[in-house]
Amino acid sequence: MMQIACPHCGSRAQQEFMYERTVDSVVPLDAPTDKAMAALFTRTNPRGPDDEIWRHTYGCRAWMVVTRHRVTHEITAVRAVGPEVLP
Amino acid sequence: MTAPRRAAKAATLNFTFDGKAYRAVPGETLAAALLANGVKLVGRSFKYHRPRGIMTAGVEEPNALVTVGEGGRREPNTRATDVFVYDGLVARSQNRWPSLRFDFGSVFGLFSKALPAGFYYKTFFGSAKRWMIYEYFIRKAAGLGNAPTEADPDRFSHRAAFCDVLIVGGGPAGLQAAVEEAEAGKRVILVEQDAILGASLIRDPQTLDAGWVEATAARIRKAGGRILTRTSASGYWEHDLVTLTQLCVEPGQTAENRLAQRLWRVRAGRVILATGSIERPIAFANNDRPGIMLSQAVRTYIRRFGVVPGQRAIIATNNDDAYDTADALIAAGANVVAVLDARETASGRAAHAQAAGMTVHLGAVPKAAKGGRQGVTGLVASVAGATQSWAVDLIAVSGGFTPVVHLHQQAGGTLNWVEEAQAFVPGSSRQNVTTIGGAAKPEAVGVMRPISQPKKSFIDFQNDVTLADVDLAWAEGYRSVEHLKRYTTLGMATDQGKLGNMAALGRLAEQQGVSIPEAGLTTFRPPYTPVSMGLIAGPGAPHGGAHIRRLALYDLHAAKAPIWQPLGYWFRPRAYPQAGETLATAALREARAVRTSVGMTDVSTLAKFEITGPDAAAFLEIICATSVAKLAIGRGRYTFMLREDGLAFDDGTVWRLDENRYLLTSSTGGADRMATHISYVRQYLCPHLRVSAVNVQEHYAGIAIAGPRAKQVVEGLIGQDVPRHMSAIAASIHGLPVHVLAASYSGERAFEVYCSASEAPSIWAACEAAVLAQGGCLYGLEAMEFLRIEKGHLVVGGEIDGRLSPYDLGLEKMLNKAGGFIGAAGLGRPALRGKGRRQLVGLEAIEGNIPEGAMLLSAPNAAPQGHVSAAAFRVLEGGSIALGQLINGFDRHGEEMIAASPTRGQSARVRVTHPHFYDLAGERYRD
Hints:
The structure holds two protein chains of two kinds.
Chain A: E1 3-6, E2 10-13, E3 18-22, H1 33-41, E4 49-55, E5 63-69, E6 75-80
Antiparallel strand pairs in A: 1-2, 3-4, 4-5, 5-6
Chain B: E1 13-17, E2 20-24, H1 30-36, E3 43-44, E4 51-52, E5 65-68, E6 75-79, E7 89-93, H2 107-110, H3 119-125, H4 128-141, E8 155-168, H5 172-183, E9 188-192, H6 199-203, H7 212-222, E10 226-229, E11 231-237, E12 241-247, E13 259-273, E14 277-279, E15 292-294, H8 295-303, E16 312-317, H9 321-331, E17 335-341, H10 348-355, E18 360-362, E19 364-372, E20 375-383, E21 386-391, E22 394-398, E23 401-403, H11 406-410, E24 415-418, E25 423-426, E26 433-435, E27 458-460, E28 465-466, H12 467-475, H13 481-488, H14 501-512, H15 516-519, H16 533-537, H17 554-558, E29 563-567, E30 570-575, H18 583-596, E31 599-602, E32 607-612, H19 616-623, E33 636-642, E34 648-658, E35 661-666, H20 671-685, E36 692-695, E37 700-706, H21 710-718, E38 728-733, E39 736-741, E40 750-756, H22 760-773, E41 777-778, H23 781-791, E42 838-847, E43 855-857, E44 866-873, E45 880-887, E46 896-901, E47 906-913
């Protein structure tokens, strides 16, 4: 079980979080059919760091992007998303 | 040193083994007590039912597996070497029938040619008919203990802990590390799976001061350290999280405070592994006979428990350590007939033993043991090329030492091969873990190649894998160590190959003509020792870990003793039967009341979201596949939601309560999923929208009132005109504010009254009085199902099952032409427009009643072309009807088919129809 640094709450156990999807699987609202299906079904699945979307479901419920190494589980960055961090 | 002899009068604990009473000394393991009582035969093996005794003195024991405890506390596959006897312990042998001495299954041993490695694979790939015959016997014969059928009466708890340094292993190395760290001001946790610390110092006394273990433990505690005995570090997970399983009582024992075991999740700053090593057996024919024991185990029984496992012993070794066992045996008064040392030249230790008068044979390797179920009677060995034999009742074996690297490897660490020790030791790790003591520096050994008949030379005792099985796997083309493991089941038993892995690797490397590190190693995975399922479930076990939520109106329903039905996290009334009614008759009466007068039901569990803000409509047009922006204030409409791939996943209604304020409802079962979906769109996909989306599911309770007299009922309750169909108004009942939405799921004129959950009981009481006054009644989910099926309304999980698109469901006309909603791109996939899609249809019985879940066939034994998703009866006229999915169903109305359910043994002849059976024009629910 990993330890994830929530940008709002600090370092918490993985069991408070839910993994949702990878950033590269996100379908932009204006994507044409072929681009949308490519995002959904053709993943990069790198053997190394990847950007993942997590949610602090059993904490502050905020969404975040976690950069996690897919082999070693090393987390190198956690980035807050949402209306709060808009410029 | 002279061994303490076990004093019979100290044996004050009573226990039974296979119904026979014995006595044990406090602090003795079951294995020690059985040996002290002369019990050699303890179990039967997994596959061949060979007689097995006690081989080790630790958690690595592969043979002496017993069931302990009774009733719900029964614990199968408990290692006799890893349970300390308590008064009243009940232990039984396993895998034997009718008795341990006369085991019918041992005939499998005579036919062991018929059960080689890969037997299961070969049987699976044989004809199905043969498998059906074999299966019964295999299931009866194979396997170990049986799981208990009753619930465990004791509690299992979970606890989280943090420390700077976690030390695994309470031997001399672990104790020394712990005291240094604790006295340096670190928060320390030290765990030891044994009941005592420093047990290896009893087996092998060193030149430490007497009382060193106790004094060191006291220093650790004084410095604030925590010491947990009877606690095993079972798993090493990501980011230095280690799970510990702590036994508060022994397996099968009644816990005084009802706490049986505790699962610890320890997040450590640093982990020190002082896990020691496990001695290896030696491969020779019949090396699994009772009376063949690991050399260090023999020493443990003599020096720790005062039990001498044999009187006439021989020792087979490839290292110096086993000479200590010879000393211990002689000191205990036993006769050591010889030490067989596989090394060609005498080590200093061997020369010393020879000088002291011990018979030592160099270049000596065992070939076969003699003896049967009552134990060994002799050993045949090759001594410098010549065969020699001895009559003995104990064979102590030492094939070297395997460092316990399991946790290091679970942490993602690499292993390094040490040629002198013929062993893998921990290498580097990406986590904060170091290994010290014997696990890091195993003793030097001589190389020893098995020279015995491979067929009965066991390497994995628990799974009955022999050298011959490794050879067969090789001969049949299994080259990789991973394939070898799966083909032979080597290392796949509960002992996880603690004893056998290295012997198998050695054999495989020999076959491949490579070195052992080149042959590779399989991965050790958690848990290190078996973990009880009750401990994993923990305190949530009694209710399966699921949430149980109570309806705001629960007490009012319960007072009417309804039939309950689980729905989402809740229990909702399925029907309110009156005296003498069954579920079916009650539901039909309730549904008829809705069709002819008025009925009311609790719809509080529907998912509800309040969407507000200047961009609320734009936000809803992303979530919903229907148009929302044109909705006038006070109006509502049916809507549905798509996944990104264009398939429907939920439906509900959307209401515009005010200029920038909307209420969205969706299915009960999909409520959490919808909440996450909405949050994803709000927080991640469209953070720039000026909108607030609040989950108000449990804030509002909802009451649906439906039927021809619903209008009068609601008018009377709110004292004003009711809203038009698909309109909403704010009103009050008895002075309490409510929202009244005119929406129909039943096909009749209907209203949903929403109020604050805390005020729901009084609103419900007022509604119920008004409904009863109009000759109506309460109705439950079953009646609702009848009504909605007859009307052709969809249900999430039934018709909306994640496989159909809006086209397939007949919802195409309602799609938002402007697009821009989630799933719009997915709908562009040509395949969704192609022929051969399953489409929503109605089904009407011509003969028989349509079984729910039935397949739809054109002719008997033809391939299924669809299925029945929901079945019911026409509420007023009677007659079996259903909704279903059928390939190209839109074009097949009027076709006759068979709805067959082989699992229920029912079928019906049906006609494919439009999925609306009632009031097709929709006149009944309008104003």
